[in-house]
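User: My instructor asked us to take a sequence, write out its structure as tokens, and then describe one feature of it. I'm not sure where to start. Here is the sequence I was given:
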Amino acid sequence: QVQLVESGGGLVQPGGSLRLSCAASGFTLEDYAIGWFRQAPGKGREGVSCVSSSYIGTYYADSVKGRFTISRDNAKNTVYLQMNSLNPEDTAVYYCATHGARHCTPMSQSIYNYWGQGTQVTVSS
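Assistant: Let's start with the prediction itself. The structure tokens for your sequence are:
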């Protein structure tokens, strides 16, 4: 019933930008904490950014702080991740996920109950 679908990934040059979307169905997104995770080949899944329910707070990993921005469009039941100044180290499959708590931190993979299918982001020249 709860479903998350990511979109917006693709191939970009270093320094470029992408906006990822996470469309939710089966629940009202604004009532849930939403997180963006990423997983590079051979790496573990890393918490990138998250937004708490009712937009009471946001979190950014140090590696993306100042470059990525998370936002919610409650009317569209969608969360976005605007990614600017991309570098090759940002290459990964990006996933959105949710759990039932108001606060989105800590970004522990085991806490998040529902996951999207992922969207590939490749940063290369």
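For the description part of your assignment, you could build on this observation: The CA atoms of residues 93 and 120 lie 4 Å apart. Try explaining in your own words what that tells you about the chain.
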